[in-house]
Fold this protein.
Amino acid sequence: AQTVTQSQPEMSVQEAETVTLSCTYDTSENNYYLFWYKQPPSRQMILVIRQEAYKQQNATENRFSVNFQKAAKSFSLKISDSQLGDTAMYFCAFFSYNQGGKLIFGQGTELSVKP
Amino acid sequence: GAVVSQHPSRVICKSGTSVKIECRSLDFQATTMFWYRQFPKQSLMLMATSNEGSKATYEQGVEKDKFLINHASLTLSTLTVTSAHPEDSSFYICSARGLADTAGNTIYFGEGSWLTVV
């Protein structure tokens, strides 16, 4: 069965600095998608970035970028120029149609951006 | 982008009563909807997957007679918590996936519903 592991329950970063959140996953599949979701105190789940496994190029969305290492089954999220509004829970998630199209989430990392 | 609306955002009910939570996809057709439960500071726990026009598939350990899920149309799924008890108090979130690539294989989430059973 697919599993997603986030080994950092909590992290903090100073405003304007860079932070990297780790995520590893386990799968025997070759075609899948990976996501990072942000959940601020409002509890709304917000899609931050997505990566298709067949693409070698790392996805980037403004200040957010990923380091996707398919062979190592690693999918870390880098947040550059951290802002106070980045304070939230961050969840890494795995998706494939072979899993019934459902997202498999990691345990989450609580990120605090300090002024 | 795709929008999923969940209602109500907060509900308080008496122990023993039933409460219904709605999940609507506003600008796309959702062939599949998912219902999650989330405890404080924890990840989302998938309760069930519902496909339009068919019975929901429940995850292991989730009581299907207690958490009734109906996906009557391509834009609406409902979760009914029957005979609610205080231990059912939680944050419930729905999500939806569109037809083929209409939502880009991305799953979009509702705003969530806080249920308090007193």
User: Anything to note?
Assistant: Chain A has a mean pLDDT of 94.
